[in-house]
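FORM 7B - TANDEM STRUCTURE REPORT

SECTION 1: FIRST PROTEIN
SEQUENCE AND TOKENS:
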Amino acid sequence: GADVTFNPATTGDVALAIRELTGNRGADVAIEVSASDRALNEAIRTVGFSGKVIVLSWYPGSLGNVFPGREFHHNRVRLICSQTGAICPELAHRWTEDRVTEVVLDSMSGMKLDPLVSHVLNIDDAAEAYKMIDEGREDIMQVVLKY
């Protein structure tokens, strides 16, 4: 059902754009996958009252660009940490590993993931790839090392 996307580089204030789109309700759920503390703060700003932010990322270091004194507390936002190595205990009785695998494989067949890969480098250039990532270049979406 997600059929609208916003590019933060061209939209400006994504949270405001989503509120305008939803009659000021905000999103029910935001999923943050970038490992950017700025993106986490925007996900918090994007969801409406009692909304959920599902965090798939791992954030190295501090979260200097997350401001919990703003929308987080005011809107009672729920942060949910998703762990890829386990099934949520509350759902484990219904979501077996076989069921999860089946749903993931079915879902993947319709995904267009090529636009998410910005760089493909040979494994021999791994040091260059890590340097590019470490520099925080804005043109990097996903770096793939080819063996």
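SECTION 2: SECOND PROTEIN
SEQUENCE AND TOKENS:
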Amino acid sequence: EDLADVVTDRGIRIVSLMHVGGDGWLKTLDFVPRSRAHLLDVIRAGERADGSSLFKGMGIRTGASDIVLRPRPGTAFLDPFSPHETLAILCSHTGREGNPLPESPDTIVRRAHARLRDELGVDLWALGEVEYFLGKRATESDIYGQSERGYHATSPFVFGERLRREAMALLAGLGVHFRYGHSEVGYVEPEAPDNLIWEQHEVELALAPLPEAADGIALTQWVLRNLAHRYGMRLSFRPILRVGHAGSGLHFHMSPVVDGEPRGGRDDDGEFHDAAKWLIGGLVRLGGALMAFGNREDGSFTRLRQGKEAPTAVTWGEFDRRGLVRLPVVPMDAEGKPVSTPTIEFRLPDGSAHPHLLLAGVAQAMVLGSRTDGLDALLAASNASAAKVQPGGAAAVPNSRAEVSEAVAALRDVFEAGDVFPGVLMDRVLAER
């Protein structure tokens, strides 16, 4: 009723149902309400769509492919890029019987999140560090940039500052919360074949429950793409833009919440909370297999092989940026009290990641960690400092699609546990060698 009032009071003519497809990108279904009753029907019940096209290769038969986009009214916002005032509403997906669609990335991450709460009593929150490259033709004003020297640079030393700040303002209006934005280290001088000057930026989002965290990534990428188009610039989330230069990661910070309290760090005695150990141990065990959803391009392996603050071994460390998992520093006030939430950072994913499927996999990894015998011994052996002195060192992260498939095959049952990941999706992953 509130949304119908907004549409009427503002004279909005277009309503857009937005949702995440099988490829991880936002999709839209637009309509013009014929009446208030028509609008309310759509908001309450949704609209049909072709599931075999939205989730291609995931087992939805063309002969029975009708699904329903089910709006979530609390996500509504005014589309800042539409030439006509448009109300956008994020949607979930249901099948013909009205149940959550198993093949939908939204369903998968929600089921994984619910399983954590039901089985472990943990509400897992996450945030993504969205790194991206902006490219444009060099002009006389672009005289300050230096290769690999862009970290925290400000105008006029970077040209993308204005776009980044506009993106942050728009995201706040859309209800996407974030911590900060800044220019990143990556800077690529013009060279053939495109002769574009590229610079790297980052927008780090704020912690949110897994489903909302995944949506926040999709909306952030959508806003950045639209702004780059408006500014006449190129934009890339690719894991590697030029061989030899820093690539774009999509690091995720996680905070397990138990009884309303964050448990991503240590207790007063300096010991890890159980939930923190479950998550770290699960990521160490499942990290290579998670690359199926977090490192989806050939360039993903090039980025890792370069080793520029990217993990090459299955290790974790307190602050080590070369670890698969690390524990970032927590700022303290003058009295020594933390002023932000302790998090566990998963540094393996890159800009090719499918955020909904990846975060669902992280949740499944945490359950795995909770059921791992000898978890303390695993954490001791996989600690970055300890692994360096052990014979043979730590296991290397997968270095090809085939190695990722092997890692998935070995732990396929972890993904499918609790009916979270459909078997047909795992079949497709294993076929993509």
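SECTION 3: OBSERVATIONS ON SECOND PROTEIN
The mean pLDDT is 91.
The radius of gyration is 22 Å.

SECTION 4: SIGNATURE
Preparer initials: ____
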